[in-house]
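Batch manifest, entry 17 of 40.
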Amino acid sequence: MPFYDYKCNKGHIFESMCSIADRKEQKECPECGAKSKHIFSVNKKYKPTFGNNDTRFNQREKHRKSMTESQMNQSYKG
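Output type: structure tokens
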């Protein structure tokens, strides 16, 4: 089951593990006991990726871009 973020009326943010069907139910805040609502949180420092950064092609491209020109010439065995 996935984790979902919740925010209570007093501003406390916490996460809870629940099913997709149960995510919209109001949860009780562990700090103050107030009811909370499901929120969508995105880290402001990093952009969301939607899983595309971990493809084999992207990993190869990151490696290729990090190599110097002499390393590229040595690694080619065409």
